Amino acid sequence: SLLHRALAEAVRYEDALFPMAPTYLLLGHAGTHTGDLAGAVRHFSEAATRFDRAGEPDDAADARLQLADLLVRTGRQADAVAVLESV
Asked: Mean pLDDT throughout 43-56?
């Protein structure tokens, strides 16, 4: 996808200004809507981690809440609880 290519190029050229966390969040939403739920889980998790690294705790918490919601909807309640405990 275009977003995946943009991420790859940002990493390749060490573009520190590229908005990695928001891009991963968008990929999480895209995965949710296209049925790539495993990909969405990975992307929401990566978004939360990157928001944490960027010092944006509110955005990290939002990404984790969306991740937990997706985990519950896919029958992974224990994983959702673990994610919520980290918020």
From this structure: 96
